[in-house]
Amino acid sequence: PICIITNVRLDHQEDMGDTVEDIAASLCSTVPVDGTVITGERNPKVVDILREKCQARGATLIVAEESETSRALVDQFDYQQFEENVAIALAVAELLGIDSATACRGMLSAAPDPGTTRVTRISDSQQPDLFWVPMFAINDWESTVRVFEDVQQGLPEGCRNVIALNNRADRSHHVAVVF
């Protein structure tokens, strides 16, 4: 069996613990005995936790590394994509014996998840252009901030930001810090 632990973020603390280390340990309950775990996680403490749990269960840990292929591919999506997610998909494909070119074609032709972040320009001759950037599929604050900063870099200079935020009660304390 193959298990993907994309990353470990401060999210769902009410169920998984208050620190990334607690959350990593909780996510490790999914590590299959004698299986393979693929992650895009970069935090060395978290990777060590994943590695220890994999060793205890006889599983192999693969930390998907970004590459020239993942860097080139991430820019070809017409929506926001994280390079480490592309690296994970390429690692899974390699493990399954799917060549990189086929995997890349498949990723680019796949329909994105609903709510995927993409910038839509809305033009009206009577008003300045508006850029709509839904970020509904982002699940944690670290990713939210990262996507927000990435999107801002691609918008015209001086573009005004208006943020409409529908937030869970356990996340409200982050709003003042981030925005």
From TrEMBL:
It comes from Corynebacterium sanguinis. GO terms for molecular function: ATP binding. This is Poly-gamma-glutamate synthase PgsB.
